[in-house]
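Q: Could you predict the 3D structure of Malate synthase?
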Amino acid sequence: MSVTRHYDREFVRTFFTSPTAVDGEEDSAKMLRSAGQLRGLQAPDVWVPDNEDATAPNMREEGVENIIDVVANQGAEFPGEIHPRVVWHRESPATRYQGFQQMLEITDPENGAVEHIDGFVIPEVGDIDDWKKADEFFTIIENEHGLAEGSLSMSVIVESGEAELAMGDLRDEMGKPSNNLERMFLLVDGEVDYTKDMRAMTPTGELPPWPELRHNTSRGASAAGLIAVDGPYDDIRDVEGYRERMKDNRAKGMTGIWSLTPGQVVEANTAPLPPKTGSWLLDVGGQEVELEAQDGTQVYDGDDLSLEADGDGGYVLQAGGERLELDEDELTEELLDRTAYIPSMNDIVDSMEEFEAAKEAGKGAIAMTQAATLVIDGVEVEVSKDRMWDEATYQAAQTPITLFQDVYEHRPDQHEELEEMYGADIVERATAVGN
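A: Sure. Here are the predicted structure tokens for Malate synthase:
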């Protein structure tokens, strides 16, 4: 069965939550108003006015009023999608009813906000029957307000073992006449409540990394034609940790991540995009070290690896306490095994265009060569590697370009920044290649 997507966005990089009402402030909606003014790389792909965990229970009624006010007045100009988060709980009918009432009020056409609302985020879901309860509320709301059925998308936060298992049922349930689950959009991990539900403990009290949950959510999204988003990374000062988390997620097929600050939004918006310049990496003691580009060479400037010529045409390579005596061919092979290349946007576009031209000429596969001059302790070593490109390789390389094209199509407010980042020529070629 092929997967059919029911919405415009194929990728979501950023899921940004804002409290809907802040107690003790003269303007309780100040953070909503501020978020609604974000533009360019500071503006998320999905903005989530959060009337659940981010807003105190005694402020949620006012939070609904603030959502309506801010979205009605600022929603038309906001460049991303708007998906408020309402209250819900798999074990509490009263809480589910409160969430229904919140959605009903926010989507009332007389309030002027619904035309800018793309959907709602439902937290604390349970098994697939609970998902269908939420979906039924969406259908009732759409009929009550004269909206087209399925016009409001539904995203859920996976915060329990029940919800994790439910992702395996979703593919079979979508499309049944008894529900409108085709409205599903995002599967979002909520590691904090998931940790509580799983009764998990760590010695420091920090959250477990939950790679299994992130893998399962990415797999569930792929199987059902949805988009997977990781949960919040709450150490907002740990920029490098945030980047590493996103890098690990992308290797699982999970592009999106929760953002708690505009700074995290910028990081999450830019991290999945192909880099402006390519870079060579060298494995030193199990760690990948980025080499420094100098005058057409790639220079290692560290103390954990050394190289010298022995005067007889051979070389001595020392790394991690290991001393290797190598001839020229052996040294080249050793360094090839230790190197990797991260292609730039231009590299990817060049390779795709070259393969497209070869395919047009009737070739099914071609060899692409990557070459560099490595410099270690002043010793230069030429390395090169060939990679065979066939249709499967082309399709795999196309993913970051497809992401870029999706961003360029849906986020015109970022065009200027993207052209500053890559150059207008590269942007033009990147938007055309593969189409």
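Q: Anything worth pointing out?
A: Residues 1-5 have pLDDT under 50 and may be disordered.
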